[in-house]
Structures are given as structure tokens and as C-alpha cells.
Amino acid sequence: MNGSPIPPVVPPAADFKDRRTGLIVFGIAEILLGALAALMIPLMILGQALAARANQDAMGVRQLTPGLVTYAVTAAMLIGVGIGSCKTRRWARALSLVLAWSWLAIGALSMVMMAFFLPSILKASQPKGQQVPEAALLIGMVVAMVFMSIFFIVVPGVLVIFYRSPHVLATCQARNPTPSWTDACPLPVLGMSLWLGVGAVGALAMPLTTNGVLPLFGKVLSGLGGSLCCVILALLWGYCAWAVYRLRSAGWWIVLISLCLASVSAWMTFSHLDLAELYRVMGYSERQIDMVKQFSFLPGNRLAYWSLAGVVPMLGFLLFVKRYFRSPK
User: Fold this and answer.
1) Are the CB atoms for 117 and 302 separated by under 8 Å?
2) What are the two backbone dihedrals, phi and then psi, of residue 219, each rounded to the nearest 5 degrees?
3) Does residue 324 lie within any of the structural domains?
4) Is residue 31 part of a domain?
5) How far apart are CA 272 and CA 300, in angstroms?
6) What is the Cα–Cα distance from 57 to 51, expressed in whole angstroms?
7) H-only helix segments in the chain
8) Is residue 113 included in any domain, yes or no?
9) Can you give the pTM of this predicted structure?
10) Given 14, 141, 154, 283, which is the most exposed site by the fewest CB atoms within 10 A?
11) Is 248 helix (H, G, I), strand (E, B) or coil?
């Protein structure tokens, strides 16, 4: 089967509507969203400082680092693609679509999970000894779901609708005619490659941020053994990111096999694992573990079931992008 990229449908040069103004407006919006993500970094640090001053058990640097890095990377990406959008760059449109589609997919899954778990979370957050009326809990749930719908569905949905317009594509191609690195593969494949790259970097950082803790087929690896496995995983995903970007079918097959093995490993581990023990190995204090237990909405082996459920959309996406990959000769 020929796996060459399917070219997007672009209106003839004389017919497309110039969307440069829209690209600037949406670029500014992305820059503002990036600034909002960057603002979360000092707020997280301030929150931990206030918790320490109030004699609460604040998170250590190791535990705080993943969140800080996530906000920093998100801010850099949004600001970068926002500036590129203002300059009508082809790569900025492509990355904006990858970012928006990823945001929308994660948001949709988050909405489904919150519909199940938000009532339990709100009840767990009630002050001890006080009973909050059911009506108040219902109002809190509705407000939270509306806010999440706007942030996780409406905002990325609007970005997708705008940047996937053939007129936006034609505008970027007309004003930035030189082919970009994002044109080397279809957008779904580009997104898959970028996420594999993010996963590789995340696995490489796990020895520093989680003491190399890695649940694996019913066991919990940590320390030197877990760190070595994390490095191997990072190298494997790094190769897959490159192979997928180059439309090599070997990369697709490795990702598929890895996903199947990960689902089996998750089931074997989380069907009996005590999450408190996992947090202890990661370096959490007993007080922090007690707080996690208080707000835990995955008692028993529910995490195992949700881990398997989370594999389904990823498997569906893998099957969707299979058509783009070259068969080995």
C-alpha cells in the first residue's frame, strides 16, 4: 500500500481569502494563553512557600519539577506558535493544529473522567465535621464542568476550526512559500512523532523526578534498576519519534507492540498495587500520602480498569494513522 502523504485540499491561489488578520489575532490569543501558562510557575512556587510557612508538608523540588517543567514547555510552545502565526509561518499553522487537536482530545477524555469522579472529589473536599448540602455540591459540579468545557473543549475547538481552514493554509503557503519541516509528513503523524519525543524526554527525566519509579508487570522498579529501564524506554521512544516522522513502518509497529505490553503491565500492576507504597518509593512523605488518599477517586483496582480504558483511544489513533506508513521493501 502506498503510504505517501495525502496532500491537503488548497483553494486555487486566485480564490482563497487572505486570513493574515485572523492569523495575527489567533497568534496573539496563543501568546496570551502561553503567558497564562507561564504565570502558573510562580503561583506554584508561591503556593508551596505558603504551605511551608503554614507548617504544612510542602512538596519537595523533585516532586514540584514535573509540574513546573510542564507549564514552562506549554508556555514556550504557545508563545512560539503564537509568534509564528502572527508572521504567517507554515510551521506555526501546523504546530497550532497539532497542539489544538491534542488539547481537544485530552480535554474530551478529562471531561469524561470528571463526569465520573467530580462528585467524589467535591465530597472529599468538604470540611471535617460539616455536611455540605447536596444542592451546593450540584452547583459546584455544574460550575466546574462549565469552566472545564470552555477551557478544554471550546478554546481548542475554536483553534482547530480556524487553523484547519483551507484559506488559512493557502494564506500561509502564499506568504511563506518555502517548504517547512512540518510539511515532511501528514499532521496526524507529526503529532504522533512530537508526542513520542515528549514521552522520550519525560522518561529520561524520571530518574531525577520520581527516583526512577517504574511499575512493570506487577513489580515496582526504582533506584538504579528503574532508572536504567527509564533510559532504555527513552531511547526506544526517541527512535520511534524519528522513525514515525520519517514514515517508517517499523516505528509504528514498535509503538503498537509497546502499547499492548504497557496495557498488560498496567493491568498486572495496578490490579493489586497499593498506591501508597508507590508514592513512598517516589519520596512522598506520610502526610502527603494521607492527602492523596483523602482525595483519591480510584479505590481498589479501578486504576487498572481505567488504564485499560485509556489504551482504547490510543489504539484507535494508531490504526487511523497506519495508512500513512510505508511498507518495508
Assistant:
1) no
2) -115, 165
3) yes
4) no
5) 8
6) 7
7) 20-53, 61-86, 90-124, 134-149, 155-163, 166-175, 187-209, 223-245, 249-270, 275-282, 286-294, 302-321
8) no
9) 0.82
10) 14
11) strand
Domain that holds residue 203: 185-329
Q: How far apart, in whole angstroms, are the C-alpha atoms of residue 73 and residue 313?
A: 25
Cα maximum dimension of the chain: 70
Between vectors from CA 194 to CA 189 and to CA 197, what angle results, nearest 5°?
130
How many domains does one find in the chain? 1
Least confident of 50-54, 73-77, 184-188, 297-301: 297-301
**Could you tell me if 305 and 116 are in contact, meaning their C-beta atoms sit under 8 angstroms apart?**
no
260-264's contacts with Cβ under 8 Å and 24+ in sequence apart are 262/311, 263/307, 263/308, 263/311, 264/217
Q: What is the pLDDT of residues 1-27, one digit of tens each?
A: 444 455 555 555 557 789 999 999 999
Tell which residue, 31, 5, 156, has the closest CA to residue 92: 31
**DSSP assignment letter at 18:** P
Q: What single letter denotes the amino acid at residue 19? A: R
Answer whether 171's CB lies under 8 Å from 21's CB.
no
Full 3-state SS string of 165-227: CHHHHHHHHHHCCCCCHHHHCCHHHHHHHHHHHHHHHHHHHHHHHCCCCEEECCEEECHHHHH
C-alpha cell belonging to residue 222: 526504582
Q: What is the DSSP letter of 301?
A: T
78-104 tens-digit pLDDT:
999 999 999 999 999 999 999 999 999
